[in-house]
Amino acid sequence: MSAISSPTVTLPATAHEPAVELPAIGQGTWHMGEGLAPRSDEVRALQHGLERGLTLIDTAEMYADGEAEAVVGEALLGRRDEAFLVSKVYPWNAGRDSAIAACEASLTRLGTDHLDLYLLHWPGSVPLEETLEAFERLREAGKIRRFGVSNFDVDEMAALCALPGGEACAVNQVLYHLGSRGIEHALLPWQRARAIPTMAYCPLAQAGQLRRELLTHPEVLEIASSLGITPTQLLLAWTIRPRGEGAPRDVIAIPKATRLEHVEQNARALEISLTEEALARLDAAFPAPARKTPLDIV
């Protein structure tokens, strides 16, 4: 393990926005606002993450029926300009008018006048043309800066980008961790060819394949111990690893943390550079699939 400059992922410039550099590790909020931890702890964790450079915060109208957005809004009170704020719209709220109303409701809960990125949470029955129209209206009104999607597989991404305006999709947020590598076969290469970064949810194997076995796997424990890091830090460093020497990073991990020590561990994972030996051992223990597999979704 060696210290490196804090790694970032670039969202390319659009016709209306300049390129932006984001930390390769942000903050997720799934399960916040549900009473699983004191609200004050959730707020403080997000604020501590901002202070440690985890400036991307991801949330959604779905999370705790909007309460997660309210937690984020409380955390950002008086410091909105410190965060790159992401939220997501339900597929059934993604119509040309309903998406406008859903976004405005999210903005109210978040206590802000704009989102830096607004995502369609997963593919639904509303035609993508309608959703794109709504996103463009929101952008023109200054309520969102960029749009993207979540839980889209390669065929769905291709259909989106074939539509007028669809090529401006900023990111695709999907489940991705060491034990769930299906996107490496087709989706990641497709997105890389078009400079569309990936946001990885559940990077600490909270869901998907091998979710119970991963953090206690002997190889994970041994490699983490040899590098002087925790298993969760190993998973985060693996998720955001550069794709070859000199290659830009294009995956942003968004783990959730409600305890300050976990926030601190996540932030320190930005300083970890995995050795070629460690990467090879992890590849051998958790190989990527040799064929396309169904997209892991939770």
Secondary structure layout:
Elements: E1 8-11, E2 20-23, H1 39-51, E3 56-58, H2 67-75, E4 84-89, H3 98-110, E5 117-120, H4 128-140, E6 147-150, H5 154-161, E7 172-175, H6 187-193, E8 198-201, H7 218-227, H8 231-239, E9 251-253, H9 260-268, H10 276-285
Parallel strand pairs: 3-4, 4-5, 5-6, 6-7, 7-8, 8-9
Antiparallel strand pairs: 1-2
Helix segment tally: 10
Quick one: how many beta strands? Answer: 9
**Terminal Cα span:** 32 Å
**How does the major sheet shape up?**
7 strands, parallel
Largest sheet, spatial ordering of strands: 3-4-5-6-7-8-9
Mean pLDDT: 95
What is the radius of gyration?
A: 18 Å
Helix percentage range: 25-40%
Shape: globular
Return the structural class. Answer: alpha/beta
Low-confidence stretches: none
User: Roughly what fraction of the amino acids lie in strands?
Assistant: 5-15%
Helix/strand order: EEHEHEHEHEHEHEHHEHH
Architecture overview:
- With 298 residues, this protein is α/β, with parallel strands linked by helices.
- 34% of the residues lie in helices and 12% in strands.
- The longest helix has 13 residues, at 39-51.
- The protein starts with 7 loop residues before the first strand and ends in a 13-residue tail after the last helix.
Summarize the structure.
34% of the residues lie in helices and 12% in strands.
Keywords:
single chain, 298 residues, alpha/beta, two-stranded antiparallel sheet, 9 strands, globular
